[in-house]
Write a structure and sequence with these properties.
Rhomboid-like fold, 10 helices, globular, 249 residues, mainly alpha, three-stranded antiparallel sheet
Length: 249
């Protein structure tokens, strides 16, 4: 399923969401310019669970070298969120962020949304680490943080409708799906894929548990990051719909 847009209008300009998309785009363009050297770049700035585990174990010694190593590896919990492995990886993530991020930022405010996004991304990487602590393949991509945005949207706008492109065999069909259904199916897909790939530990591919961890973090953290006293936009939407004022934006 490919989301194209939702029907919840934003009351504010989603500045942070725009900047996050631009930052991801800038880093990805830089990756393309690196050519073969991009491998070293990804290994240096991607999150490697095995390296994190090793640094965390060495940290117990208390030496300055161990502290510096742990700090450097911990930084990749954030830097990895802005790296992507291909055009499809980048465009797919940015599409989801574009569709769902503006409304979540609208409910949280700019500063809260930025902290929320990064915290979900870090939590997603840690969830991936807990499942595969010995993995030596770099984990990259914004999908863990974006999964947190989806989790927040799931709580804030369950009655919204998402214009969705669904490939059926060789045909493309458009549906207006309830956000609750769309995101529940998305989460179920991540969980089922995590089970199917559980028999292949240590292999590269999609970090399914990062998606699951990010989504779970979003579902929980949204209650702390949404601005108090702000009436849910979804409630306004349904009231306006009854009066015939709502339209797709």
């Amino acid at each position: 399923m490919i989301p194209l847009k939702d029907n919840i209008p934003s009351h504010t300009v989603p500045i942070i969401n725009y900047l996050l998309i631009l930052a991801n785009a800038a880093v990805f363009m830089y990756e393309l310019k690196l050519g073969p050297e991009v491998i070293q770049w990804v290994e240096a700035h991607g999150f490697i669970p095995a390296a994190f585990q090793q640094a965390a174990s060495a940290w117990e010694s208390g030496s300055m070298t161990a502290w510096a190593a742990l700090l450097g590896v911990s930084a990749t919990l954030l830097t990895s969120l802005f790296l992507h492995g291909s055009w499809w990886h980048f465009l797919g993530n940015m599409l989801y962020l574009w569709v769902f991020g503006d409304n979540v930022e609208d409910r949280m405010g700019h500063g809260r949304y930025l902290v929320f996004y990064l915290l979900c991304g870090v939590t997603a990487n840690l969830a991936h680490y807990l499942v595969q602590p010995g993995l030596q393949v770099p984990t990259i991509g914004a999908s863990g943080a974006i999964a947190g945005v989806l989790g927040a949207y799931f709580i804030l706008y369950p009655k919204a409708r998402v214009l969705t492109l669904v490939p059926i065999v060789i045909f493309l069909q458009f549906f207006q799906l309830p956000a609750f259904f769309f995101l529940a199916v998305w989460f179920l897909q991540q969980y089922l894929m995590s089970i199917l790939t559980a028999s292949m530990p240590g292999q590269g591919g999609v970090a399914w548990w990062a998606h699951i961890g990010g989504f779970g973090a979003g579902v929980l953290l949204v209650f702390f990051f949404q601005r108090p006293g702000r009436r849910p936009t979804s409630s306004v939407y349904w009231k306006k719909k009854q009066n015939g004022y709502i339209r797709w934006n």
